[in-house]
């Protein structure tokens, strides 16, 4: 069963499971109380169903799959290690997971088969993002790596490549907390080092580093403008201009346009919803 057209999802690793609300009315559509998913470990698979990697409980950390119209777990899978980050491609053909060992896992959705697994980072993978055939991974080791999925899915290409990754960015001084991509091959990352950094995926370089008063755990990019939103541990959402017209790498806080501060606690995840217009 397909979900309503406008839903907002929220998940908790400690209580209340995962719930979905109708964005137009605010009514709760469904709640999966058996889910204990951490930030960036819940994904929608092409609108068909939900996949949620569970926080470790003892020796078990399965991935739960849910139908939209049923609160029970439909299917469980058991990867070889806890999955910290989980995303799906736009067509819902593949699931990509980042493990606590630093490995990345690539599954086919239809069969559940693990197509490829590779060691990406020396500490846990905290976040993943896709841009066309590029996969961007951020880690607790502070690094961000860019992978060509066409290369990684072909064994011969992997063996012939000098390095498996296309780019490796190491400018963050502390763990990377989130990464997001937008048109123009631009990526924005957040980190525990109090900065967000803007990257060119086509040129393989940092375009700008912006300092924040707080650690930022999440970023969301506005596709309609050169603005992104950074969720801070101080309970504020910082509205920030990318400033990517600058030709040389720079670091400043002058591009923070303002902050939304209705929350007392940290923001662990941000997402933008499409504009909703009333029916006349």
From TrEMBL:
Xref: InterPro entries: Quinoprotein_ADH-like_sf, WD40/YVTN_repeat-like_dom_sf, WD40_PAC1, WD40_repeat_CS, WD40_rpt, WDR18/Ipi3/RID3
Pfam family for this entry, one: WD40
Segments annotated as WD repeats: 118-149
Sorted UniProt keywords: Repeat, WD repeat
Gene3D superfamilies: YVTN repeat-like/Quinoprotein amine dehydrogenase
Entry-linked PANTHER family: WD REPEAT-CONTAINING PROTEIN 18 (PTHR18763:SF0), WD-REPEAT PROTEIN 18 (PTHR18763)
Protein's name in the database: Os07g0408100 protein
């Amino acid at each position: 069963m397909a979900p309503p057209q406008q839903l907002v999802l929220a998940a908790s690793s400690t209580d209340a499971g995962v719930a979905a609300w109708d964005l137009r009315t605010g009514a709760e559509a469904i709640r999966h109380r058996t889910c204990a998913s951490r930030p960036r470990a819940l994904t929608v698979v092409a609108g068909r169903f939900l996949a949620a990697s569970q926080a470790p409980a003892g020796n078990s950390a399965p991935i739960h799959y849910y139908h939209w119209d049923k609160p029970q777990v439909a299917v469980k899978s058991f990867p070889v290690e806890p999955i910290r980050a989980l995303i799906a491609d736009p067509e819902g053909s593949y699931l990509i997971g980042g493990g606590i060992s630093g490995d990345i896992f690539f599954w086919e959705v239809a069969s559940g088969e693990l197509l490829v697994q590779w060691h990406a980072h020396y500490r846990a993978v905290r976040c993943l993002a896709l841009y066309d055939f590029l996969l961007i991974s951020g880690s607790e080791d502070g690094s961000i790596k860019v992978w060509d999925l066409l290369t990684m899915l072909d064994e011969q290409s992997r063996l012939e490549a000098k390095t498996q990754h296309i780019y490796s960015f190491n400018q963050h001084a502390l763990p990377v907390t989130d990464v997001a991509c937008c048109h123009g091959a631009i990526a924005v990352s957040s980190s525990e080092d109090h900065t967000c950094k803007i990257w060119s995926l086509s040129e393989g370089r940092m375009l700008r580093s912006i300092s924040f008063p707080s650690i930022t755990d999440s970023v969301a990019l506005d596709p309609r403008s050169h603005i992104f939103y950074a969720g801070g541990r101080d309970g504020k959402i910082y509205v920030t201009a990318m400033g990517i017209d600058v030709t040389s790498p720079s670091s400043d806080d002058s591009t923070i346009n303002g902050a939304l501060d209705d929350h007392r606690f940290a923001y662990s995840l941000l997402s933008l919803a499409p504009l909703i217009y009333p029916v006349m």
